[in-house]
Amino acid sequence: MKRETSLTLMAVAQIPLWAQVRPNIVYIMTDDHTAQMMSCYDTRFVETPNLDRIARDGVRFTHSYVANSLSGPSRACMLTGKHSHKNGFTNNEHGIFDGSQQTMPKLLQAAGYETALIGKWHLVSTPTGFSHWEILPAQGDYYNPLFIHQDGSRQVDSGYVTRIITDKAIQWIERREKDGERKPFALFVHHKACHRAWLPALEDLRLYEDKTFPLPPEFHDDYSSREAAGKTEMEIGRHMDIVYDTKMFVSREETPRTRLTPDYLRMIGRLSKEERQQYDDFYVPLSRTFYKQWGTDYNFLPRQQQSCVEGSRDAELLEWKYQRYMRDYAKVVHELDVQVGRLLDYLEDKGLLENTLVVYTSDQGFYMGEHGWFDKRFMYEESLSTPLVMRLPKGLERRGTVDEMVQNIDYAPTFLDLAGAPIPDDIQGVSLLPLLKGKAASKEDKQAVRHWRDAVYYHYYEYPAEHDVRRHYGIRTDRYKLIHFYGHDVNAWELFDLKHDPYELHNLYGQPAMLQVQRQLHRRLEELQIQYDDPQR
User: Which domains does the chain have, with CATH numbers?
Assistant: First the structure.
């Protein structure tokens, strides 16, 4: 009997700690938070000590990508572990997520996990696969937001949305603890931040006002040799709304009306009288100064920003808009970082942190003036890439940077693998666990890492739509990128050597010196389209 007990203990000891006691999962996803605005990736713009804390205590992925750089489709890829053409949610304009299909939260439930979703959903249909959910309708609001509850009721919560979402996440864990719930849990904390129009918490209004942000090297991109890039409408100079985006509003009488003024007034109309006074005390003086300098009848759509002559009035206005954009975005990031810190502290205080996988990422990247743009959608680096940091539970020993290529279709199989649940064959992503085990990695894990993917596949569908980004698909390898823009008024290929052209300014497609590489990339692209069963090929 003693021998049997001893053998049993030895067998248990050989099971990784994360498998002996199944870890909790806390998945924090923001909207449009780009790696440039996270100081563990880039120190030029902001400091994010709490987000950096996750990376410092765990891992930071340096080649993290999305499959479709758009909010709803990206979320569908995460939930299903499948590319957009397989999960059926290809674009925000006409998409409705089919909640009856297989999803990772449903599979976690079947494996004995309690699941919860708090915050932004943005998939039109009602959430399924969650034991509890409270979601923002559509994009939601920054100030005094409305939440839809699982029982169908709707309630306005007073305060700032990033703080409220964190409150609700903590309250859900707190209720579990009080009820003595012993099931492992998977909590999905989906923030509205940092989505347009970047409305800061009221106490943060004056942050970053003394900072001048450096212009990106490709800020004055002329889009030469890139036809689709020149057709888009997301230039800071020509397409960023002076009222909606930069908040230059004095009053209905003193402010010129723009296309998005009604949307702006609806957003700030959610503030109480006292809150609105605090808001106006900051923005109205800025607005009066702006209109005194520029007048109320100036051209809201100046000529293409790449043609702005240095020192000219157009160039001055362009850079002014960039600084306002960066400051407001940075303020929104600041409160996000504070609230992530609050959640981490709570988990630590409750003794949950050591047995919890904490994941922080965004639904895609974002342009912070690169190519003169805001927004996302393109397969160019700033929107294809997304920040990804993880604090690992006991037993997963990897620390520091992870340089292998990963994609948001990998989250579903990773969470299932961690939970000890089977990964269905139709999931297209791969578990990241072999990358995270460190010294505990088995021979099979090490082999999986040695044969890790050499390219990621991307497909964007939403056109015609806001910002006029044409449909395109392509692949990115460790050095090259091949993109095909197709349909409507464009049929163009682009090829970039990211080693020598990291800003993607020079399209090398068709150049004699690149023909061999071009053929190889075409072949690899076709292989991935076959692998993922994309009918576009």
Answer: 22-198+329-451 (3.40.720.10), 237-326 (no CATH), 456-531 (3.30.1120.10)
